[in-house]
Structures are given as structure tokens and as C-alpha cells.
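Input C-alpha cells:
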């Protein structure tokens, strides 16, 4: 039987299909690509751009510098370290799952994240174009298979005839907006939201049967305030690193070591650490090996000021928006044509190496794309 979450997703696509059908005369259909152009929002973009064109130009110039920094850094890290590249896909499950080639995010979380990435990205392109007195032909939405998107269409002839710095500001604006969103959210969570919604300590969510914690007498629902005589202070950086919320207090204990906990109601528990054997796979050599790790047997979480609230979901979705805004901004600013990074490179080569511009852009694009493909395939 279909669950409520999956049903809500199916209803979403049903409503979307009805809207597309009724508005089909205004929609461009190109195989699996659906585009809907409109002249709405252009006035809104104009009003923002006209507040202070000089401010936007200075802002845009700074954005160009930031984007070239991330282009160079991203290309270097991708080439030298070849990090794992995965697709981010929507899932009918309300839980996050990870496979060798994809990160599967709950559908509604995925929609919110996409919205928070696309809207700032495209609006900043439009604002910068208007600040540079480039006309906007249209603003629109698109759907590539199941992947939503958005776009602004500046007048291509005007852009082509414009000065180099104008082009660079316009092309860099989108990724720069993603970087701003990412760092702003991270800053707000780190210094304002997290301290405002959490208190010291951790709450036990689950105890594994016959584990050291179970043998010591710890129970689900208990709130632990101290470990080895030190107050347990949970931080947002610990949340991001996923190393545990009391490792800063105890370091990395050894097998057989006794960890002393004190609960909120002043009960004391001594947990003697055991070990768990993990079987790992070396993907480079395709061999398996085992390793013993210290083992306590508790699943726990921070203590939020409002128990049973939406606060954990709020932190999760804001963190995902921050992380994926940064990731999309970096991918988009890589020197791959026709992504924004490729357009930046094309603008420079048109100015300083016009006769070989296409060959240079094509060669750089092929090089970076091949590295991306290799980084994706090697982890399958």
C-alpha cells in the first residue's frame, strides 16, 4: 500500500502535469526539456538593479574575483585529489540514503533545496545584467525530465558587444549568489540559530542490546549532561563533522577504557568500551579487510529547547541548502562550456586570444569533463 509521503509526491506531479497541459500553448517542448518563458518579474529585477547600479557593479566585480578563485581551486582539487562525485537525486523515501553513484534526498527536501539554489542564482544574473544596462528578453522555468530549473535570458547581441568586465560580472553573478547563500546560512546557524535552540547535553535515542551502554544500565530517553566530569557541549561543527558530540571532552578513547556519564537527574553510569569489527572495502584494489573500532552502543542527538519539535528538521534542511548551494556554485563555475565558468573563460579568450578562443574553450571543457566523469565512475 502506498504511503502518505509517496502519495504527496505523486499528487505533486499530477498537479504539475495538469498545469503544463492547460498552459501548453505558452510552453516550448523539446523532447524531455520543457520551457516556460514569461516577461513577469522583469520589472521586479529592474527595480532592484536601479537601487544603486554602482553598488551592483562593485558587488559584481568582487563576485568575479571570488568565482575565479573557486574556479581555480575547484579545478585543482578535482584534478589532484579526484574527490567522489555523486548525483543528487530526489527519493520517495523520507530518509536520506547514499549509494555509490548518488545521494538520495527526500523529495520535498530536494524541491526546497533546488528552489533555494535556483532563485538566487538566476535573479542575480538578471540583476547584474540590468545594472549593466543589458535588456532581459524573458524570465522562465524549465523542466528537464524530473529536474526543475530556472533561467533569465539577457539580450545576447548586447552581451556580445559589451565590455569584458560587463560579461564577467553577468556570468559570475549566479555562482556568486550561491556562495553568498551558502555562507550566510552557515554563519546564521553557527552563531545564532544553533546556540538559540540547543542546550548542553545529549539525549539517548536508542541503546543497542548487550552493548557496553546497555550493560552499564543506560536507557533510551535519558539526557546525559556530563562525561568524565566535563559538561557535554554540543556544537554545530560537531553536527557537521559527525564525529560525536562528546569526543571533544574525551578525545579518542581506547578499547577497555571506562567512560563516566552523569545524567540530567544526577545518576552516574560507567561504560566500559568494547570493540566492534567492521568489514570495509578498498575500492581501488577491490579487496575487503576488517578493522576493530571502539564501541559504546548508543544512538544519540543534541538536546533541543523544544522537545519533539521541528528544530532538527530545520537544522537539517538549512544545512543541506548551505552545502548544496556551495557545491552547485563550484560545479557551475568550473571551466566547462556552456556553464557559467565556461562562459567566463570564453569571454577572456575572446578578448586576449580571439583566433584560438573556441579551441581553447573546447580543450579546457573536455579536460575538466573527463576528470568529472572519471571521479564519478571510479567510485561506482
Amino acid at each position: 500500500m502506498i504511503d502518505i509521503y509517496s502519495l504527496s509526491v505523486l499528487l505533486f506531479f499530477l498537479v504539475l502535469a495538469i498545469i503544463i497541459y492547460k498552459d501548453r500553448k505558452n510552453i516550448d517542448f523539446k523532447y524531455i526539456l520543457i520551457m516556460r518563458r514569461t516577461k513577469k518579474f522583469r520589472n521586479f529585477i529592474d527595480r532592484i538593479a536601479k537601487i544603486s547600479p554602482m553598488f551592483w557593479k562593485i558587488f559584481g566585480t568582487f563576485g568575479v574575483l571570488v568565482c575565479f578563485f573557486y574556479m581555480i581551486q575547484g579545478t585543482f582539487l578535482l584534478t589532484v585529489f579526484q574527490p567522489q562525485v555523486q548525483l543528487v537525486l530526489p527519493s520517495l523515501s523520507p530518509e536520506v540514503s547514499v549509494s555509490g553513484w548518488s545521494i538520495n534526498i527526500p523529495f520535498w527536501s530536494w524541491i526546497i533545496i533546488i528552489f533555494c539554489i535556483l532563485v538566487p542564482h538566476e535573479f542575480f544574473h538578471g540583476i547584474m545584467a540590468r545594472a549593466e544596462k543589458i535588456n532581459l528578453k524573458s524570465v522562465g522555468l524549465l523542466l528537464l525530465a524530473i529536474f526543475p530549473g530556472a533561467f533569465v535570458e539577457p539580450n545576447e547581441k548586447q552581451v556580445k558587444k559589451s565590455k569584458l568586465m560587463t560579461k564577467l560580472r553577468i556570468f559570475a553573478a549566479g555562482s556568486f549568489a550561491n556562495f553568498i547563500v551558502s555562507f550566510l546560512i552557515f554563519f546564521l546557524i553557527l552563531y545564532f540559530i544553533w546556540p538559540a535552540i540547543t542546550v548542553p547535553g545529549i539525549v539517548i535515542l536508542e541503546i543497542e542490546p548487550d552493548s557496553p551502554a546497555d550493560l552499564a544500565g543506560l536507557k533510551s530517553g535519558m539526557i546525559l549532561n556530563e562525561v568524565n566530569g566535563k559538561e557535554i557541549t554540543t556544537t554545530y561543527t560537531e553536527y557537521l563533522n559527525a564525529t560525536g558530540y562528546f569526543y571533544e571532552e574525551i578525545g579518542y578513547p581506547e578499547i577497555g577504557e571506562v567512560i563516566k556519564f552523569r545524567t540530567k537527574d544526577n545518576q552516574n553510569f560507567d561504560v566500559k568500551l568494547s570493540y566492534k569489527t567492521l568489514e570495509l572495502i578498498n575500492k581501488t584494489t577491490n579487496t575487503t579487510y576488517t578493522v576493530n573500532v571502539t564501541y559504546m552502543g548508543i544512538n544519540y542527538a543534541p538536546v533541543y529547547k523544544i522537545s519533539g519539535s521541528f528544530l532538527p528538521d530545520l537544522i537539517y534542511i538549512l544545512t543541506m541548502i548551505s552545502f548544496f548551494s556551495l557545491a552547485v556554485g563550484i560545479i557551475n563555475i568550473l571551466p566547462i562550456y556552456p556553464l557559467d565558468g565556461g562562459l567566463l573563460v570564453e569571454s577572456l579568450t575572446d578578448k586576449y586570444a580571439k583566433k584560438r578562443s573556441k579551441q581553447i574553450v573546447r580543450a579546457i571543457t573536455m579536460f575538466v569533463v573527463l576528470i568529472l566523469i572519471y571521479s564519478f565512475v571510479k567510485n561506482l
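Residues 83 and 375 are 6 Å apart (CA to CA). Residues 4-193+314-377 form one domain.
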